[in-house]
Amino acid sequence: MIRFSVIGTNWITRQFVDAAHETGKFRLTAVYSRSLEQAQSFANDYPVEHLFTSLEAMAQSDAIEAVYIASPNSLHFSQTQLFLQHKKHVMCEKPLASNLTEVDAAIACARDNQQVLFEAFKTANLPNFLLLRESLPKIGRMHKALLNYCQYSSRYQRYLNGENPNTFNPAFSSGSIMDIGYYCLASAIVLWGEPRSVQASANLLESGVDAHGVVVMDYGDFSVTLQHSKVSDSVLASEIQGEAGSLVIEKLSECQKVCFAPRGALMQDLTQPQHINTMLYEAEAFARLIETHTVEHPGLSLSRATAKMANRNTSSNRGYLSGGRYDASSSCVK
């Protein structure tokens, strides 16, 4: 049984704890919060033995072997590094860090300390996403794809009311591409690897973060368009088009439904059953890496490639999201 702790006491942390326990491979033994009362409130639902208000103390504790990090994006790297240095395995919510430099440093730290580092990008581990990858040959020669995730944020009204929620605060490495847009970006890289080049545009809020945007990834023979937003909803599915037909995916992040529409024929439902808690599969993947002590794994390359595309912290500007053309081979914005 892997003894683990959590940083963050929000809904996504509860969902992961439930998923981790469902695997039968994890046991929650510690909770961190800046507020002891908040940590206790979270722990009331689980048989937790240790509560911490000090990250350093929890990182040093023998009560844990691993940590799940679900804090604001800007804190991911420093917290990841702290726990890796104290020989704890780390599962960190996506994005793994604020920029490529931090991702590279986190990966190096994991290697130096021989600990598992795993970015919690759940989509890549879903049965229906794996099915989607296997089904790509069905469409024949591919020409284009649209990966779509637009969802009106529950915190947007607070922003409009003059508040400064983390979701729309650049100090926390927030914004659309670093949140729901990340599902589109990382999914594209899992399916097709890094593109030859990227063209992107984004509409920025007065706070400085991107509210919504479009990214076009050029792969030579085909292109992939990503559409993301935190200020509007969309009813469109994602679609991958080829000469023999199309694959249609409902709610990309969850891969709720996958269908194949052969050219000139009726649509076929390919969907497989999935657990209602879709974080179960990434919890199982993390457990396997720990049990086999697999420090080097494909997820690290995915984290790095996605950070390279999403990097918004260049020396001269805020990254390709400000508009412009990103050459994937040179890590520069033109």
Brief digest:
The protein is α/β, with parallel strands linked by helices. The protein contains ten helices and 16 strands.
Index terms:
alpha/beta; Dihydrodipicolinate Reductase, domain 2; globular; 2 domains; Rossmann fold; 334 residues; 6-stranded parallel β-sheet; 10 helices; single chain; 26% strand
Topology of this structure?
Elements: E1 2-7, H1 11-23, E2 26-32, H2 36-43, E3 50-52, H3 55-60, E4 66-69, H4 76-85, E5 89-93, H5 100-113, E6 117-120, H6 127-135, E7 142-150, H7 156-160, H8 180-192, E8 197-204, E9 210-218, E10 223-229, E11 238-242, E12 245-250, E13 257-262, E14 268-269, H9 280-291, H10 298-310, E15 324-327, E16 332-333
Parallel strand pairs: 1-2, 1-4, 2-3, 4-5, 5-6, 7-10
Antiparallel strand pairs: 7-11, 8-9, 8-15, 9-10, 11-12, 12-13, 13-14, 15-16
Helix pairs in contact: 1-9, 4-5, 5-10, 8-10
Organism: Salmonella enterica subsp. arizonae
Keywords: Oxidoreductase
EC number: 1.1.1.292
